[in-house]
Request: fold
Amino acid sequence: MTRVGMVIRFCMLGLAWGSSFLMMKLAVGGLSPGQVVLGRLGLGALTLCLLLVLTRRAWPRHPKLWLHLAVTAGIGCVLPFLLFAWAAERIPSGLSSVLNSGTPLATAVVTAVALRQEKVTLRKASGIVIGAVGILVVLSPWRFYSAGAIDLWGQLACLGAVLCFGIVFSYTKKYVSAYGADPIGVPAVQMLLAALMMLVLAPFIATGPVSITVPVIIGMLLLGIVSTGLAYVWNFQIIAQWGATAASTVAYITPLVGVALGALVLREEISWNQIIGAGVVIGGIVLGQSGSGALQQTLVMKKEAAK
Reply:
């Protein structure tokens, strides 16, 4: 695939995932978090399976690959989707997208420390520390006991989801990309397994009243088909070609999209600490990746996008 084509997919992925926070906010207006995730995964799996059949591509057949995809389905889909949907009931969608900008930091930590795929240099360690400070600024601990404080547990749920994404980015690069399987077949199996997992959990966590409205329908369709189905095809392609850390820099785009949509559609207010904190997080990411192939690829992407 050409570099320009990958840049286009990267931008589309940023738009899809950035808008997902608004879609979740709309969906939880009539559904429980569990019901949102069940619908999201079901629509995503249906979209990918239809795409696989219509394009006459082969299903992944290696048994070990299916086992690895079961891991990525649980850690990269079911758990973080539940955490983000639960947080959508408690905090603004724009704030969720800002907290999601910590994904490259989580990916860098997991890649370097847990999976030992990259060395922890002084520059990278400094970037991680600065990024952590930025996340602390976003969380604004000085407001926890004030009347206008934003729900702490909702923010921590987002950070838990971010950690899941960091794990799955690195895991996918190390254990899934090596098989060289079909770029549609892999996310199709992953989403199908995730939907089946959620179906098993549904009687326990996807109960409650349902209120179907136009915003709920629009939110669920876009969330399931675009932000989950098509987005995971683009994500797998980017990880396979650029690597886990470079692919995770899509989090540069998601807070911009999420904050803008939250403000325009839902009239959400963004506080000064969220803006400054997001800037510090991105600064930490840039510092931690400067001089690495990941940053060079990001700079190339920006140059190509500007042409």
The chain is about 75% helix and 0% strand. The chain has one domain: 3-306. The longest helix spans residues 214-242. Confidence is low (pLDDT under 50) at residues 293-307.
